[in-house]
Amino acid sequence: MKKVFLGVISFAMLFALSVVDVSAQKMGSDKVTVGGEAMYKTKDIVDNAVNSQAHTTLVAAVKAAGLVETLKSEGPFTVFAPVNDAFENLPDGTVATLLKPENKAMLSKILTYHVVAGNFDAASIMKAIKKGNGKAELKTVAGGTLTAMMNGPMNVVVMDEKGNTANISTYDVKQSNGVIHVIDTVLLPN
Q1: Residue from 8, 32, 19 nearest 174 by CA
Q2: Closest CA to 189 of 169, 168, 167, 164
Q3: Mean pLDDT of 19-43
Q4: Could you tell me if 178 and 119 are in contact, meaning their C-beta atoms sit under 8 angstroms apart?
Q5: Which of 37, 38, 45, 56 could make a disulfide contact with 51, Cβ separation 3.0–4.6 Å?
Q6: Whole-number mean pLDDT of the chain?
Q7: Cβ-contact 145, 139 below 8 angstroms
Q8: pLDDT level of residue 5 (50, 70, 90 thresholds)
Q9: Under a CB-based contact definition with an 8 Å cutoff, are residues 118 and 138 in contact?
Q10: Computed from CA positions of residues 53, 39, 181, 99, in that sequence, does the dihedral angle turn out positive or negative?
Q11: Element housing 79 (H / E)
Q12: What are phi and psi of 121, to 5 degrees?
């Protein structure tokens, strides 16, 4: 009797653990990680970005430019978010110079050049590219223009006004106030 009871308890525990495991897999099936951390649709752009180890420079720049409250607001915003390596590829001293208080306006212009008003996921950008015969112009919050183009059947690249091109490495990181696309280059306005 004792063996039967222990067998039933063991079976019940294994069943319970398997249900928990399956539920965790289902819950995580549309989970996106950026910089080694999970991004949550219920959090805003800033609250997700601060957890990404790949975006520590971007977060520091957003804070220095005084854009935290803007990017925490309702939006929606589409953000093309450069990774740390993108900032490291700028000429020596550029980031340190931009982070100085006296350069706040210039930093703000560069950062808001990475932001488009509206919620543009990859599918809508690709649709706009197709409609635009291979190019889609996206007006930025800074007032400039980004040009999105296809580089292969499923790869969107974004070009700035100076002709620099950024590859999107992670698409459609949904936020409560928009969407982030992770890019490998800092885009620069004219």
Answers
A1: 32
A2: 164
A3: 57
A4: yes
A5: 37
A6: 84
A7: yes
A8: very low
A9: no
A10: negative
A11: strand 77-82
A12: -80, 175
The residue to which tokens 């223009």 are assigned = 145
The residue to which tokens 């970005």 are assigned: 49
Q: Which positions ≥6 away from 88 have C-beta within 8 Å?
A: 57, 95
Residue 42 identity: T
Question: pLDDT, tens digit, for every residue of 133-169?
Answer: 999 999 999 999 999 999 988 899 999 999 999 999 9
Say what the pLDDT of residue 30 is.
62
Write down the residue that tokens 């752009």 correspond to. 45
Rounded Cα distance, 178 and 75, in Å: 7
Q: Token digits for 142?
A: 């800074």
Rounded Cα gap, residues 21 and 159, in angstroms: 43
- Give the range among 23-27, 102-106, 182-186 with minimum mean pLDDT: 23-27
Closest CA to 64 of 117, 102, 116: 102
